[in-house]
């Protein structure tokens, strides 16, 4: 068990270059294709380096309602579950966050629906 812990400590201490070299050795000499995620996690120990963390939570920001304000209010109401008055206030107060902390796929879906209704939307 002590050997495993020592090995783990060595792996955590590797630089990005050393991780890449390890991945190359595993692939060429042993036929093991290391997962890209494992390389990124191991490289993260260096304090950022070449491997940046991927953002996982996004905010959907309504920049403006555009020409079809009524349509945008309806879509905001449906997407957020707000009442008609609250949805109108959100649209009138643009720029405002429509939803916060959502996945990239959900943010893209919300943006598409709002853009289709005539709104100007941004994902942050």
Provide keyphrases for this structure:
single chain, 124 residues, alpha+beta, Ribosomal Protein L30, Chain: A, three-stranded antiparallel beta sheet, 6 helices, 55% helix, 15% strand, Ribosomal_bL12_C/ClpS-like, Ribosomal_bL12, mRNA binding, structural constituent of ribosome
Task: Give the gist of this structure.
It comes from Chitinophaga terrae. The protein is α+β, with helices and mostly antiparallel strands.
Please characterize this protein's 3D structure.
This protein has six helices and three strands. Helix 4 crosses helix 5. The protein is α+β, with helices and mostly antiparallel strands. The model is unreliable at about 40-45 and about 45-50 (pLDDT under 50). Strands 2-1-3 form a three-stranded antiparallel sheet, with helices on one face.
């Amino acid at each position: 068990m002590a050997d495993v812990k020592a090995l783990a400590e060595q792996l955590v201490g590797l630089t990005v270059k050393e991780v890449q070299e390890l991945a190359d050795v595993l692939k060429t000499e042993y036929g093991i294709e290391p997962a890209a995620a494992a390389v990124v996690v191991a490289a993260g120990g260096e304090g950022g380096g070449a491997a940046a963390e991927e953002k996982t939570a996004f905010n959907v920001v309504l920049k403006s309602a555009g020409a079809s304000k009524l349509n945008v209010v309806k879509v905001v109401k449906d997407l957020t579950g707000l009442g008609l008055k609250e949805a109108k206030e959100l649209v009138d107060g643009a720029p405002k966050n429509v939803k916060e902390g959502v996945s990239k796929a959900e943010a893209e879906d919300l943006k598409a629906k709002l853009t289709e209704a005539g709104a100007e939307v941004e994902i942050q």
